[in-house]
Amino acid sequence: MKNVLVCGAGGFIGSHLVKRLKDEGCWVRGVDLKYPEFSETLADDFVIGDLRDPVLCSASVDRPFDEVFQLAADMGGAGFVFVGDNDAAIMHNSAMINLNMVEACRFAGVKRIFYSSSACIYPERNQLDPDNPVCSEDSAYPAAPDSEYGWEKLFSERLYMAYVRNYGMVVRIARYHNIFGEEGTWTGGREKAPAALCRKVAEAKDGGEIQMWGDGLQTRSFLYIDECIDGTLKLMRSDFMGPVNIGSEEMVSINQLARMIMEAAGKTLTIDHIPGPQGVRGRNSDNRLIMEELGWAPSQPLQTGIAKTYRWIEEQVRNQDPGNA
Question: Are 302 and 259 in contact (CB under 8 A)?
Fold first, then answer.
């Protein structure tokens, strides 16, 4: 039986990862500031604590775990990351978590650690054309992310790689591209585009209107949570360190994403484009390297995951406001 530690186990990706690891028969400890919001944790042991605290990190890594997944970060969607008001907290909190965790893992003799980086590390200059973004792994330098969130992720990639060189640690690094699905944040200001649009469509009456930041021509790719966990475990158990993209190559405009959600809802709505934070104009996962190294690619179209996610968020909206059904 593997002993596995999941940092950020109360979050969206972390809670799904815990479920998968338990399905595999692992003994799992989760650590987070909070329990998962939408379901009971399946972790064998769950530590409520702040990973910015080095004492808590050391206490959490009290044995040479077979695997540690470091997913904890101060994060959110465009309304949190790109407004500028949270930059210092994002950089300080996430950097402290990574500095403390990698050191605690080194002292505990952890065999293997996974770090979840982000597509936000890629240079803004390569993502100005919404139809032709460049997000191959080797395009990360010269570095010029468009957010402090991206800068911190890039710093932490280099931190983990330095521990590999200097201390012989085994590290795997993934750059996630817009992960979405059930049991993710869908309201409150930190939700990302798929969840935010699902909520707006669920709340709207057929024939009504929803609001969207920007002109909707900005492009992205979105990866369903189950696919993300598949790619993450494939990388973790491989001989390839990365960094490597884990995402979908099915690029859509945000207008197209909204129409997919409307189709899942069976509603016809108009879009009111309003000013708001948008991030880069175009971003798409380049999966050539992960296919070459791991033979991995997503197995289902975006519409399949969107339909599942919409149904879940629609239920949350209905439970919150029974009169909205």
Answer: no
